[in-house]
Amino acid sequence: MTDDENGVAGLLLAAGGGRRLGGRPKALLPHRGRLLVEYAAEVLRLGGCARVHVVLGARAEEVRARAALPDCVLVDNPDWEQGMGTSLRTGLDSLAGTGARAALVLLVDQPGIGPEAVARVRRAYRSPRSLVSAAYDGARGHPVLFGAAHWAGIAATATGDRGARAYLKDHADAVELVECGDVAEAYDIDTEADLAHLE
């Protein structure tokens, strides 16, 4: 089964304004000689996602102008300041009608998560009813995969910065955990101190 045939699209949430980083959007932070948004989009591609949608918000026009995101679909979230939940809803909505049967969601501010973790989660896809999450020592983390059958329910509950947390909690028995602690680190780039993780 090819990547296009199994219909798993990459969804990169990159709209945050970096409030605790002095208003520096995380998408524009430098990492390994490129912008963080470029790095994360490439992680999704190398992990096997043929289609990648990138949700932009803070300084979206600057990100579009500076970032090299070939073959990515760039989606603007005008409500990004209301939290990550709005970006998740916007991203899932952008995938409707594309033929995607699942969305593999990655956050732009977790550069410790590389292609191998993405590939592991993607390989666990079985059907549009799949719910898959990377796990770190058994605890649920990112990336996560949402089969299309769940998109409407996730969109209805994604509010503030919680994203799909409430939905996943309510459907915990259906979530397949894929251990990724041996190939990835799930730290966030949230504060000035966290910038030490960037290279």
What would you note in describing this structure?
The structure is a single chain. By secondary structure, the chain is of the alpha/beta class. It is 28% helix and 23% strand. It contains 7 helices and 9 strands; from the N terminus they run H-E-E-E-H-E-H-E-H-E-H-E-E-H-H-E. Residues 1-5 have low confidence and may be disordered. The chain has a 7-stranded mixed β-sheet, with helices on both faces. A two-stranded antiparallel sheet has the order 2-3. A hairpin with a 2-residue loop joins strand 7 and strand 8. Helix 2 (36-46) crosses helix 5.
Terminus-to-terminus distance: 36 Å
Helix content: 25-40%
Q: Multimeric state of these chains?
A: single chain
Tell me how many strands there are: 9
Counting H and I runs of at least 4 residues, what is the number of helices?
Answer: 7
Rg, Cα atoms, Å: 15 Å
Find the structural class using helix and strand composition.
alpha/beta
- Give the rounded overall mean pLDDT: 92
Give the neighbour order of strands across the main sheet.
Answer: 5-4-1-6-8-7-9
Report the order of strands and helices. Answer: HEEEHEHEHEHEEHHE
- Which descriptor suits the 3D outline? globular
Q: Can you summarize the main beta sheet? A: 7 strands, mixed
